[in-house]
Amino acid sequence: MLSNIKDIADILQAIVIVIASIVAGYWTLWLFRRRRQSYPRATLKHEVSHKVMSNGRVLLNLATTISNIGEVKIELPSAQTWVYQVLPAYGDLLEIDKPQSEVDPSFSFEKWNILGRRNYKWDKSAPLMEPGECLQLPPDNPEYFVLESNIQVAFIFTQVDNAVTSKRDKRAVGWRTITIYDLRSVQDGVPQNGAKS
Question: Taking the model in full, what pTM does it have?
């Protein structure tokens, strides 16, 4: 009789373990999808400085750091950086002084004067970032842009593309960052009058 009770207890224990394993697996899958852990996540950060050269032109130094803050690997097929002129203002930028209700709805930084542009395209050697890893663009050295001496404020825009596309609308996804860099508040890379670079 005692052996029958032990057999029943062993069977019940096995059933409970199987049910607990199924519930735990379902719970893990639900959390994985809810937190979108299967999707890549990254942050971008610009580090900008500049140096006035002897001819009066400005050497703008830009390093972009990409950090994989997600739970999956990220493959980076391409990236782009643009440097636009903000000040002195011209053309569409003169609209900034208008009230918001009077600004042309087609106003876009993409129409601004481009001071420099860099494209990074990787074919089969695309960088693969593991979770927690960081990568600097460009990979070896900071990027340099030569600006005219009259440029006072620059708008720096970087977009990093992702090899994964959106499942809903099949569009490319990626990450962007913007820095507005005031060359007037920093002389030769050193903040002036308490300004922060």
Answer: 0.68
Q: In the prediction, which pLDDT does 195 show?
A: 42
**How far from each other are the two terminal CA atoms of the chain, in whole angstroms?**
82
Yes or no: say if 161 and 77 are a contact pair by the CB < 8 Å rule.
Answer: yes
Cα separation, 87 vs 108, whole angstroms: 15
How would residue 110 be classed by pLDDT, with cut points 50, 70 and 90?
low
* Strand boundaries in the chain, DSSP class E: 42-52, 58-68, 74-75, 78-87, 114-121, 128-129, 134-137, 143-147, 153-165, 172-182, 186-187, 190-191
- Determine the Cα–Cα distance for residues 78 and 172; give it in Å rounded to an integer: 11
Question: Measured between alpha carbons, how far is 151 from 88 in angstroms, rounded to an integer?
Answer: 6
At residue 163, the 3 state secondary structure works out as strand
| CA pair distance 109, 115, nearest whole angstrom | 12
